[in-house]
Amino acid sequence: MNALFETTALHPADALGRPLRDLRVSVIETCNYRCPYCMPEGQTPEETALDRSRRLSFDDIETAVRGFARLGVRKIRLTGGEPLLRKNLPQLIARLAAVPGIDDLALTTNASLLAGQAQALRNAGLHRLTISLDALDPTVFRALSGGRGDVADVFAGIAAAEAAGFGALKLNAVIQRGVNEDQVLPLVEHFRGSGHVIRFIEYMDVGNCNGWRREAVVPSQQLRDQIAARWPLRALSATYRGEVASRYGFADGGGEIGFVSSVSEPFCGDCHRARLSADGQLFTCLFAAQGQDLRAAIAEGVDALATRVDALWQRRADRYSEQRASGGRDRKKIEMFYIGG
Question: For 2-339, CATH number?
Answer without folding.
Answer: 3.20.20.70
